[in-house]
């Protein structure tokens, strides 16, 4: 645990999504995975399973990045969880540049500050259900 003395600002936590989205834009799955801790858990949007190794996440992002995704947060709630942990939960939309398809999804990112750097420790993303 980091024992951070000062709580992160909303802008700081929201900016972590921008860093993640910029990593997607590189097209490099290793660049995206570098934002996660080695044992981070990813529940991906467009694939089954619980991905909790770098190899699994990198393989997933390799396939996902082939679609050239660009994400935008539509709505979110940031929480300071204390002691160097924070979360960002809400709705985001991906436009897949390869096909033009649009994917509406729900997300939760949980971050831990490690050595002055924020890392993703949990990431859940699932398609947003269509209202009945």
Write a structural description.
By secondary structure, this protein is an alpha+beta fold. The protein has a single domain (10-127), classed as Roll (Nuclear Transport Factor 2, Chain: A). It is built from three helices and five strands. A five-stranded mixed β-sheet has the order 1-5-4-3-2, with helices on one face. The longest helix has 17 residues, at 10-26. The termini are far apart.
Tally of helical runs: 3
- Output the CATH class name: Alpha Beta
What's the total number of strands? 5
Provide the domain count.
1
End-to-end C-alpha gap? 43 Å
CATH topology: Nuclear Transport Factor 2, Chain: A
Strand content: 35-45%
Q: Label the overall shape.
A: globular
Order of adjacent strands in the largest pleated sheet: 1-5-4-3-2
Uncertain ranges: none
Q: Can you give the helix content as a percent range?
A: 25-40%
Key traits:
132 residues, single chain, Nuclear Transport Factor 2, Chain: A, globular, 44% strand, alpha+beta, 26% helix, five-stranded mixed beta sheet
Describe the secondary structure blueprint for this structure.
Blueprint: H1 10-26, H2 29-33, E1 36-43, H3 54-65, E2 69-82, E3 85-96, E4 102-114, E5 117-127
Parallel strand pairs: 1-5
Antiparallel strand pairs: 2-3, 3-4, 4-5
Short description, anyone?
By secondary structure, the chain is α+β, with helices and mostly antiparallel strands. The chain has 3 helices and 5 strands. Strands 1-5-4-3-2 form a 5-stranded mixed beta sheet, with helices on one face.
């Amino acid at each position: 645990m980091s024992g951070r003395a000062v709580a992160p600002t909303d802008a700081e936590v929201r900016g972590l999504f921008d860093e993640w989205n910029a990593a997607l834009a590189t097209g490099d799955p290793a660049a995206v995975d570098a934002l996660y801790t080695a044992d981070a858990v990813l529940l991906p949007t467009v694939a089954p399973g619980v991905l909790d190794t770098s190899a699994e996440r990198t393989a997933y992002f390799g396939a996902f990045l082939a679609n050239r995704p660009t994400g935008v947060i539509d709505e979110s709630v940031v929480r300071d969880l204390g002691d160097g942990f924070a979360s960002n939960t809400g709705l985001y939309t991906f436009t897949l540049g390869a096909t033009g398809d649009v994917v509406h999804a729900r997300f939760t990112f949980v971050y831990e500050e490690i050595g002055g750097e924020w890392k993703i420790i949990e990431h859940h993303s699932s398609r947003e259900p269509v209202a009945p």
